[in-house]
DNA sequence: GCGCCTTGTGTGACCGGTCACATTCATGCC
DNA sequence: GGCATGAATGTGACCGGTCACACAAGGCGC
């Protein structure tokens, strides 16, 4: 119990040492669990630590040893459900491993801005996790200097990445494949796709899965409609699709886009799922409560975040390396927004 | 340009010093903008800095000077729209001031767990921002040792807080007041309220605003229905309210609750806004795209986050103290979910 | 009884910065 | 000319830990 008034600076190992009548090095040994310390000495030191309320200074530890026990998450956004959930998952795992979690937002995808953010993150020391679902994130992941430990949370890669690239991903492609097959199985001639902005120039994993399902079913492949991330983009895309009476099934790159599409269909007087079926992606918490409730594919973002941290943890400390890429399995959730196409054709 | 291979450890001020032919202290002076350095010397040092790609080591800076330039945000959740937006606002302002942002999630409101999280945050050094909208946050804010610089993001306090308590808030009470008056002005006899969990034992600010509007209008005051944070809670509350034919207007503690209420009304066959009007709180991005689109009160969470950081920044560095509590003004957004009560009565 | 290994502990340097103070030299003033 | 003043720079200690090494005491083999 420390009853002295005054804001005194926190106790250091030397304070503890004098209080326990040992050298500071012995204190260091005790707090690091070094074996060769006499039990009676250890007791005395522990008592002194308790008495003075000693806590090891993280800054000094980092400076002296290089071990930082910190991770910085680089992301373009913190408010989108998927991003926020990944962050939450990372924090959860990091907390369990008593790592500190820092966050840097990539406000612009501009080359220089991204580089500056990466630098800032590097300055923080410790490892990096980059959420690379969008151009800013992808660019950031590419801009990380090779000597920095980094894990990327990415879209399903087209080909297995080099072992030198520690990446995690949810199986986007499989998820899109499942959702598309679900819609086709209901009897729709084809499925239109409202895409999220692709993270790279190349086609996104979600698009690939959708395309694959269409191809297997011999369904015609309409041009994907480019959306944005939020419901506004879905709304705009939905307006265009609503005009075409041939459109009876729409897969959306995420639940927010789907929401916008639903709204646009409603405004155009086209009923869901009577005339048009809609499926989303992610299973955001509100999707189950929409009217009509949204058919979607659930991705375990929190788990993905945990995996990302686990992978980074493995890179930073040689203990407990995990399996190469722990991919979580997407789960189709069928709700009200999907059904058979209108009877007549 | 550093073309040497090998992962060499980053250049320190002494490396720069020898490269420039000066002492390390002179380098320190240059990077800190100390006035009395001969221009020619400064030039040489800057050139060396550039050449070696020197970056000041944040850890060493923190250890030696005590200045940490970091802020840790303590929050119960990162995925809810309001929380995530506040975080985004804090990060934005912190980035502008080149502060690092850390995050700690209060997974449980349990006394010991909260205390541990606060300790962890304290270990990170720098300032603290606690989002205290819920029991876990409130408890955390209370558990912060007095000597730590901390800013609370709180509900509108009932009475002006002591100057010793640097807090920021959006005007919840005014927002609830506005929304309630809007519904009453449409002709509803009274307005029912589905509450978010109160952060404290005492009545929440939102409840107070609602109550005040009812009282001023001489409307009867129904018992508030206790909800949770997510749509599920709203759904449960909505089910109960839907059974009572006297209920024609419902104000919800946030947009997620409102979503659940809308869904429950729909399931009970009560039309919105024909039979029942619903208003939310926060103006989450999806609220405008619901069917019916949601009448709500927009709160500037991002701005609130920026204010929180600005206040903390003022506490940490004596430069540029800001006005006591910069309260952002809520804005009523009227959409489809509110309208006059059913004609007959 | 000597050397040697193991156990328990202490000493000094170091991580990369900052701070307080000392030093040098040019200048201005009386 | 002597001396205070200020500009420009350097030196040593320090922040709070860790690391490499030294060293004393005790047990064991021969």
How are the SSEs placed, and which strands pair?
2 copies of one chain form a homodimer.
Chain A: H1 13-20, H2 24-31, H3 39-52, H4 58-65, E1 70-75, H5 81-96, E2 100-105, H6 111-123, E3 127-132, H7 135-143, E4 150-154, E5 167-168, H8 172-185, E6 192-195, H9 205-217, E7 225-226, H10 231-243, E8 249-252, H11 255-267, E9 277-279, E10 296-298, H12 301-316, E11 331-333
Helix pairs in contact in A: 1-2, 1-3, 5-12, 6-7, 8-9, 10-11
Chain A binds a DNA duplex (30 and 30 nucleotides) through residues 12-14, 22-26, 28-29, 32, 35-38, 41, 56-57, 59-67.
Structure write-up:
The structure is a homodimer of 345-residue chains. By secondary structure, chain A is an alpha/beta fold. Chain A has 12 helices and 11 strands. Chain A has 3 domains: 13-56, lambda repressor-like DNA-binding domains (434 Repressor (Amino-terminal Domain), Orthogonal Bundle); 68-170 and 300-327, Rossmann fold, CATH 3.40.50.2300; 172-299, Response regulator (Rossmann fold, 3-Layer(aba) Sandwich). A 5-stranded parallel sheet of chain A has the order 2-1-3-4-5, with helices on both faces. In chain A, β6, α9 and β7 form a beta-alpha-beta unit. In chain A, α1 (13-20) crosses α3 (39-52), α5 (81-96) crosses α12 and α10 packs across α11. The longest helix of chain A has 16 residues, at 81-96. The N and C termini of chain A lie far apart (80 Å). Residues 1-6 of chain A have low confidence and may be disordered. The interface between A and B is large, with 54 and 54 residues. Chain A binds a DNA duplex (30 and 30 nucleotides) through residues 12-14, 22-26, 28-29, 32, 35-38, 41, 56-57, 59-67. Chains A, B: Residues 11-65 form the HTH lacI-type domain.
């Amino acid at each position: 119990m420390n009853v002295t008034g005054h804001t005194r600076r926190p106790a250091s190992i030397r304070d503890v040492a004098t209080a326990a009548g040992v050298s500071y090095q012995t204190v260091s040994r005790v707090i690091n669990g070094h074996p060769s310390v006499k039990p009676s000495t250890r007791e005395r030191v522990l008592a002194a630590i308790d008495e003075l309320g000693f806590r090891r200074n993280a800054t000094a530890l980092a400076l002296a040893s290089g071990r930082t026990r910190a991770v910085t998450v680089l992301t373009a956004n913190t408010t989108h459900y998927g991003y926020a959930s990944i962050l939450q998952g990372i924090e959860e795992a990091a907390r369990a491993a008593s790592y500190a979690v820092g966050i840097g937002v990539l406000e612009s995808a501009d080359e220089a801005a991204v580089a500056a953010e990466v630098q800032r993150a590097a300055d923080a020391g410790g490892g990096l996790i980059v959420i690379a679902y969008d151009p800013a994130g992808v660019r950031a992941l590419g801009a990380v200097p090779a000597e920095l430990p980094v894990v990327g949370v990415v879209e399903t890669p087209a080909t297995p990445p080099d072992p030198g690239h520690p990446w995690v991903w949810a199986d986007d492609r499989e998820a899109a494949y499942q959702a598309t097959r679900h819609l086709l199985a209901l009897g729709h001639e084809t499925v239109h796709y409202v895409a999220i902005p692709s993270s790279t120039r190349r086609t996104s994993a979600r698009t690939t899965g959708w395309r694959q399902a269409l191809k297997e079913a011999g369904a015609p492949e309409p041009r994907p409609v480019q959306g944005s991330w939020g419901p506004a983009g879905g709304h705009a895309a939905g307006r265009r699709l609503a005009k075409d009476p041939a459109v009876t099934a729409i897969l959306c790159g995420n639940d927010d886009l789907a929401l916008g599409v639903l709204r646009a269909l409603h405004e155009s007087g086209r009923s869901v799922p009577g005339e048009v079926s809609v499926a989303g992606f992610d299973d955001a918490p509100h999707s189950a409560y929409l009217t009509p409730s949204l058919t979607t594919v659930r991705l375990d973002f929190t788990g993905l975040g945990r995996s990302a941290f686990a992978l980074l943890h493995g890179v930073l400390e040689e203990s407990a390396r995990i399996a190469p890429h722990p991919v979580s399995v997407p789960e189709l959730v069928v709700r009200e927004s999907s059904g058979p196409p209108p009877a007549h054709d």
